[in-house]
Amino acid sequence: SSPPSSHRGYLYGEFSDPLNDSVRCSVSLTQSSLTIQRICSVPGRTRTVFNLSDCIGCRAHRGSERADVGAYFTAYFYPFKRRWMSAGLTRLRVEQCFRVALVQDPLTNLREAERWAQAIREGSQLQAPRREVRRPCRTMILVNPHSGRGQALQLFSGHIQAMLTEASVPYTLVITEHQNHARELVRKADLSKWDALVIMSGDGLLFEVINGLMEREDWQEAMQTPLGILPGGSGNALSASVHHYSQ
Ligand SMILES: Nc1ncnc2c1ncn2[C@@H]1O[C@H](COP(=O)(O)OP(=O)(O)OP(=O)(O)O)[C@@H](O)[C@H]1O
């Protein structure tokens, strides 16, 4: 890789494809976007632009092979795309990984990958004015394993867990064990430990959590805690309404 130049809000570098070292691309980061241009002699559609407002996170890491001196940074985007055979737009996950091999020293390469990852993370946070929760967002996630067809936990580990890791969201998972478990927990919890409470269930568990918050002595302050709902029930009417009105 050639050494990147940087000045206010701008970073430029040349990296290789992690799967094929001979495929190289130039990457430039501005305050609002990440542009990837494939370096090749054949003209064509080789330029891709990602908005940083669609980026949920970026991490730097070493390769899986010990002998690999290169380091990597991977950015996770969720741009709106048209799903095949579907009329509406939906957010689809796109992962972009780059190999940094400036020098033969793995640590220097890792430091450079970290620098890029941090710049992309900071840029994406600045581009998301609607995100009101602070970062890192310490989250308590309550899952009712019996919600819907009993698949809420499976949905969590299949879809949500990886997104939280990619977005560097530290979380504590609580699997409810009985009716009113969430209500009692929230009523007594030290809410200063959490920046957000997220419920993965149908409507019933959110109802419990709101009741638990309202039953506290400090309910006025407690009700300011950001709440999130991930559809895990059968109907998910509340979750669909919240999503609809938040657009
Ligand atoms: N481990 C548990 N065992 C039994 N009941 C539970 C448990 N955890 C939560 N509950 C209770 O189950 C009720 C129903 O949960 P929830 O609304 O999440 O699922 P659902 O009824 O399947 O979803 P939907 O409302 O979409 O049909 C809640 O009111 C909650 O009190």
Automatic annotation (TrEMBL):
EC number of the protein: 2.7.1.91
Keyword Nucleotide-binding attached: yes
Predominant location: membrane
Any single Gene Ontology cellular-component annotation: cytoplasm
Superkingdom of source: Eukaryota
Pfam families (alphabetical): DAGK_cat
Gene Ontology annotations of biological process type: cellular response to growth factor stimulus; negative regulation of apoptotic process; sphingosine biosynthetic process
Places the protein is found: Endomembrane system
Residues annotated as domain DAGKc: 134-247
Keywords: ATP-binding, Kinase, Membrane, Nucleotide-binding, Transferase
Top-level class of the enzyme under EC nomenclature: transferase
GO molecular function: ATP binding; sphingosine kinase activity
Name of the protein described by the UniProt record: sphingosine kinase
Species whose genome carries this gene: Gouania willdenowi
